[in-house]
Structure formats: C-alpha cells, structure tokens
Amino acid sequence: MAKTLDKVDVVTVGVGWTGGIIAAECAKAGLKVLGLERGKERGTEDYLMVHDEFRYAIRYELMQDLSKETITFRNNRKQRALPMRQMGSFLLGENLGGSGTHWNGHTWRFLPYDFEIKSMTEKKYGKDKIPKDYFVRDWGITYDELEPYFDKFEKTAGISGDGKNPFEGKRSSDYPTPPMKKTPILKKFEEATTNLGYHPFMLPSANLSEKYKNPDGETINACQYCGFCERFGCEYGAKTSPEITVIPTARKTGNYDIRFHANVTEVLKKGDKVTGVKFIDRVSGEEFIQPADVVVLTSYVMNNAKLLMVSGIGEQYDPETGRGTLGKNYCYQILPGATGFFDEQMNVFMGAGSLGMTIDDFNGDNFDHSDLDFIHGASLSLTQTGARPIQTNPVPPDTPTWGAEFKKASIHNYTRTLNVSGQGASMPHKENYLSLDSNYKDAYGVPLLQMTYNFTDQDKALHKYLTSKTEEIMKEMGAKTVVPGNPLTDYDIVPYQTTHNVGGTTMGSEPDTSVVNNYLQHWDAENLFVVGAGNFPHNSGYNPTGTVGALAYRCAEGIIKYSKNGGSLV
C-alpha cells in the first residue's frame, strides 16, 4: 500500500531546465517546492574525467536507461510498433539536469512568425497554402508577449551572442555576454555567405565567451573550447545548465527539496483538480503518494504526454475521427545539409557545442514561398563543435567503408572536412502523433508511449530545397568535393538526428485544439501545469531550449498567481 507523505505547495515531476526554473521562481516567492527526479544527483564535480568519448558519446552515460522505460515506434497505423531498445534518433536525458546537462547550448528565440504561423501564412499566401491534413495553428501567444520571458531566460543563462541577426524578433536588451571566438573556419562561412548576399551572424551560445554572474548570483565560467559539449557534462561549469544556475538558486531559498530515484507513475485527480502524484522509489521499490496544491509536469516531451495518458487526464487524439488533443501535433525536425572536402587542414578537433555562424535568410517566412510547396524553412549553420575521433570518419564518395584505403582516407580527411547543415521546421500532420502502446509496458507495469511518425511531403520538399542552399554555400567556401545530404524517404528511429522532439501537450487559446493555455495550465485541471517542448504546436528552424526556457518562466509566473488567487489564468 502506498505511503502518503506530507503535502507541499508545488511538486514538479522532473528536475531539468523546466523543473529548475519553476522551482527557483516559486521558491523565491515563498512556496514550498519538491522536485521528484527519477535519476540520481550529479554536478560539475562528476565531470572531471568527462573527456571519455566511448563512455559518454557511444555508451550514453548521461542518458535514460531504456531497459527501464523506452518508447515504441512505427511509421504508420498499419505497422506494429516495436520498442526502441537502444538510443537512436534522439537522446533522452536522465538524472539531475536532464537533457540540460548534455545539450550543445544553442539558444534561440523562435521567430515572431512561429507564434502566429497560421494567421501570417494565410494572410500572405491564402488559405489554400496549408493543406487540410496539416494541423498548423497559432500558439495562443505572440512573440511580443513572450519577449520578456526570453529576456529573463537569456540573462539567467548568460547567453553569448552578437545581436546581428536582421530577422530575429525585437529585443528588449542585448545579449548578456559577447559572442564566442570567430575562428578561421567560421570566417570562411561568413565570407561565403556574405558573397552570396546572405546575412551571417554568430550563433547564440550557452557556452559562455566570458565569466558571468547571473541576476540570481550564480556564476557561469568561460568556455575553454575543449570540444566535449554535446552528450557530455561540462567540467568547467562553462556550459550553462540547470545544475549551476536555477537549481542552486532554488536550494538557497530553503524552500526547495529534491527527492532522487523517484519515478512518478500517475497524476492523481479528483473532480476538476489534481491532488498530487504517485511515485515508486527506484532503490527500495516502495510506493508513495505525494500530495500537492499544484502539480507541474516538467519532464521530457515523451514522459509529460505519457503521464497524462496513463492518468486519464485529457482526451487522447484519435487520427480516425480527429477528436482529442493529447498526443496531437507531434513534430520532429528536418536536417538538410552538405559536406565539403577541402585541400587545406583545419583545426576541427577544437570547438564548443554552440561555436558557430548562422544565416536565417531561409528560415521562417524570411523568403518568398509563393511558388514553393512547403512553408517555413531552416536556420543554416556551420558549427565548430569539436570533431571527436571515434565518431568522426569522413571519407569522400566511392571510398571503401573498411580496410586500408578507408583508414587512409579517414585520417587524411579528418582535418579537411566541414559541414553546413540546417535545422528545418517540422509541421504537424494528422498521421503523426503520440499514444499509449497496447502491448508493451515499462519496468513498473505502466504502458509504454507509442510514437507514430513519418516524414511528410512538406518535410521532403523543404529538405530538398534547403539542401541545395547548403550545397551552394559549401561550393562558395571552396570545397574541392561537395556531397549533399540524401533525399528524405521514410523516417527511421536510427541513427541519431536531433533531440528536438515537440508537441503532444500543446498550448493554445482554446481547449478544443490544445492541452494547456498560454500559462501552460491544463484546461481540465486548474492546478495542473505541463511545461516543455511538448507545448509547441509545431517545430521551428531552431533548437527548442530557449523557447522552452521562456515558456517555463511564464508558467512559473502563472503558478505564483494561481497560488494566490486560484482559478483559470486566462
């Protein structure tokens, strides 16, 4: 029988960026907050030996244990979904900090176009521009309304940038720290894109260019350009993560506690409110009930959706009838790109997760789509993230994939290869969604989440068009051989692509089309909040973290208001 614990004001399920932000803001406001984290505690001191590519980048030391919980996957409803038994297309984080520990640090604000995409697209191109099978809609909030929260997240994280992107939304203040170093490799990209008439700028980075103290008094150190960011924790405390910012801020208030190894299996609901959560201690096997005045789901996209589904909160989306919102609008990301092989050697093995230059000339609606069979676009970047030796074996076409000739070509080209790549927007389609699997369960007897997803005609057209643009840039950079990315076919859950999964618990202005309102308050339970990239009705041409952070700060504001006054916030 489950043991009932003492009630708290706010309980968060997951302690990464969103859980940390909610905790810090609510605890500063005097609320008693408990974070439930199913993983273990960790921090900067645990990463002193982090430059072990095999342990972290190949064996995924920091990632979710798929023997305990995973997802099942299929391309369409006619297929049988099967479990993902090893990390593949995306890397789900676990333990304190979640995915905010092993991220690269790209920190973007989604474009003003993103938040009003349906209205703006139809106004410019007509209602027929968006096919009926695509669930494209506005977010229920505008960029201008969200801008103060973007600003707050960037100041908390100390983001480094140059402010030279002519296409970004209006900013209330400059980036907190200057841009990172503009290396010879980045200058090559800058010169080529400028020659082509585009507008290059330094990529906004959570690998900081200089030491910085944020408004909460937390110190973030300067990046050492070691090249071990993505899939790794930072032993310098120079990659902004929850463990060195919002979590220490919350703990210092005395109003915050974290319970580790706590795997939440259900959100408890009575009438039109939730009463708390049920969780299992992963070490002892004991079951507990944690009562709370406010429950906040702050785990990853997949788990937030799954918890609502197994708890029976909200109506599951049905692609047959079109009814329901939970699990709807699942989107991934499209990755056009081109590889260039050069004669000269370059220092590719040094770098940082967000060391790069970008153009936004083909992102959002920054270019004319009148004669194109897709909407939106991609940010196109050259990033110098550090070419790690185990996973970096670039060889030109027609090179054997093993043997002496392969080894020779791989060694020769290791320091002579660059990539220009895009992060392409993904639009929601009626056949792409999340649901519960009817066959498979996790280690605790809870049904696994099932993903039904495939690339669409929109995705394929966008990928083809933007791949040609990356090929054009690479040729202008002077590569002797340029290899464009292969055309999109069916989506495969291997190999790795990005951990930029969105949708399933979307925000909006009406309960008929969304799961939460624009404070991320659940339409069916006023004291339940759901925070993360699952709130996005579509994916943009950027990494999601900056927008997730902004939404988390707005949600925290809403929780504090709710704790005082109750009721719906909109």
Secondary-structure topology with pairs:
Elements: E1 3-4, E2 8-13, H1 17-28, E3 33-37, H2 53-58, E4 71-74, E5 82-83, H3 99-102, H4 112-115, H5 117-125, H6 143-157, H7 184-195, E6 201-202, E7 212-213, E8 219-220, H8 246-252, E9 256-260, E10 262-270, E11 273-281, E12 287-297, H9 301-310, E13 337-341, E14 356-359, E15 378-383, H10 404-413, E16 417-424, E17 433-441, E18 447-452, H11 457-476, E19 481-484, E20 528-530, H12 545-565
Parallel strand pairs: 1-12, 2-3, 2-12, 3-9, 4-18, 12-20
Antiparallel strand pairs: 4-5, 6-14, 7-8, 10-11, 11-12, 13-16, 13-19, 14-15, 15-16, 17-18
What does this 3D model show about the protein?
With 570 residues, the chain is of the alpha/beta class. It has a single domain, classed as FAD/NAD(P)-binding domain, CATH 3.50.50. It contains 12 helices and 20 strands. Strands 1, 2, 3, 9, 10, 11, 12 and 20 form an 8-stranded mixed beta sheet that branches. A 6-stranded antiparallel beta sheet has the order 6-14-15-16-13-19. A 4-stranded mixed beta sheet has the order 5-4-18-17, with helices on one face. Strand 17 (433-441) and strand 18 (447-452) form a beta hairpin. Helix 1 (17-28) runs parallel beside helix 8 (246-252), helix 1 (17-28) runs parallel beside helix 12 (545-565) and helix 6 packs across helix 12 (545-565). The radius of gyration is 23 Å and the shape is globular. The model has no long low-confidence stretch (mean pLDDT 96).
